[in-house]
């Protein structure tokens, strides 16, 4: 009996265990199916969010293209000063809205892990000049010194993503210009290897040995936590790195309001404001978060040091590939870049800079030397007079800092008299960082009015000022700061371009932009019309194609155009058609550039798959238009089509 009871108990236990196991398996399967269902919902929600953002972006960008385009055309008309101010304000507001859209899209890409970097060749110094141009008006209005210095050790050409690198620096400089009312904003770029010597110099220097003379946050603290460095007793030691890579360290230093101690921990948190939303100066709160992600994608680190009422210094590192295979190529490339791109007319000339601040003088010398001018430095006007009258050197131009000139006008007048006594007197320039100070010089200089060069200094602007005032060459006229106007005119003059867009406003904007630079433009509103016009042989040199159009979108229209071209090319190669019937062109391939308000990565990839050659986002800037057009027309400039 006991045996039977034992067997029964064991059987019941086994049955209970089996039943529990079956229930557990069923629960696990249910949990798995529920988890998979939640995963599908999350993926669907992510896709829906991406589609929603893309749709909203497209719907906002399309009318903004018309608004900004027409404002750009309005600026080219005869407006008085008040009207120009109204138009500039409207342009700034429109660009701010587009910038906000871009930041929201970037944040969505970061969250979905779809943000990717390009690897293209770019000129670092030219890129920083462009960024300076964005903030020059604001800095001059505030009277804030704005400057960039790039070490001679940094290669002229780098391989990386220039757009994203520009975005990081623009975000940091935008914050600085927003919260800085006096003093300076100073951007420096060095090789990481050079930072050791830089630290040693700075530790021995005064804390006020800065660009404007105001104290700043200790930049060494901004990179104190970087893994790139090993902390040692005497400073920092660089970790070993590949010789093919260029490791840059970029600092943006300002003398603004600084960041409160309690807010510093959330600086890089998305959508977080340093101050209360009702009193903040501007911004969305996601620029620094996006910058941190971009720096990480560039295999770098970012940090900051900030002291309330003193200022902030943001520093980040970024790894690029050198655009030069060896040092000899780099030297020849640098010489070529200086002589061709930055006006060879200045080669061999000598300049004297009068400036008591070593860092500010260093910045001025850096930009002037980019023109091929030999530069010497003195601290005050008395030393300048001694150097000029000494007869050891013949100076072609003198550049006097505004602080020195306005300190004692009697000494300045005596300095001018000494210059006039020289047989071949050098040309005198004053360096000013605010519009009001430049007007003061004009009013107080008496009979002799020196030429004024407004900061921030950039190579192209500096060359244009020197050419104009020294009479070296002044053949180019740039209206409203459009330095790309003449190059675009040279590239587009006489070109026949087809524009395809179902929106009449966008057609008018695109056609006006291209006609402005001498292109012959034909506009159509559908993909089918474009196919009929682009059937070989034809006389068009390029086509700007919208993507989202009714009946036939830009992707399908491009595919059919490429099939037509392939068919004609195959028939010509097989001898079925003669060269005359093909327009005397053996290989038909018209450049087709997508022109759309969609800026998501999937759209750009689809453009490449269907056979498009480039991409212009709406609202497009003329610089972007120039970059895309130059890829096809620059190498054939001057040829007959």
Radius of gyration over C-alpha positions, nearest whole angstrom:
31 Å
* Amount of beta strand: 15-25%
Count, helices = 20
Task: Kindly report the name of the CATH homologous superfamily of the largest domain.
Answer: Histidine kinase-like ATPase, C-terminal domain
What is the average per-residue confidence, as pLDDT, rounded to a whole number? 80
How many strands appear in the DSSP assignment?
A: 19
Structural class: alpha/beta
Poorly predicted parts: 201-206, 231-241, 326-341, 474-486, 636-641
Largest sheet: 7 strands, mixed
Description of the molecule:
It is a single chain. With 641 residues, this protein is of the alpha/beta class. It has 4 domains: 11-112, Signal transduction histidine kinase, dimerisation/phosphotransfer (DHp) domain (Helix Hairpins, Orthogonal Bundle); 120-199 and 210-225 and 244-272 and 284-322, Heat Shock Protein 90; 344-439 and 448-470, 3-Layer(aba) Sandwich (Rossmann fold); 485-576 and 585-634, Rossmann fold, CATH 3.40.50.2300. 49% of the residues lie in helices and 17% in strands. The chain has helices at 2-75, 81-112, 124-142, 162-179, 195-204, 219-222, 287-297, 327-341, 358-369, 381-389, 402-407, 409-420, 435-444, 459-470, 485-492, 504-516, 527-533, 554-573, 601-609, 622-633; strands at 120-123, 145-150, 157-160, 184-191, 229-232, 235-238, 245-254, 302-307, 311-322, 350-354, 374-378, 397-401, 427-432, 451-454, 496-500, 520-524, 542-545, 592-596, 614-617. Strands 1, 2, 3, 4, 7, 8 and 9 form a 7-stranded mixed β-sheet that branches. Strands 11-10-12-13-14 form a 5-stranded parallel β-sheet, with helices on both faces. Strand 17, helix 18 (554-573) and strand 18 form a beta-alpha-beta unit. The radius of gyration is 31 Å and the shape is globular. Residues 201-206, 231-241, 326-341, 474-486 and 636-641 have low confidence and may be disordered. It is a multi-pass membrane protein.
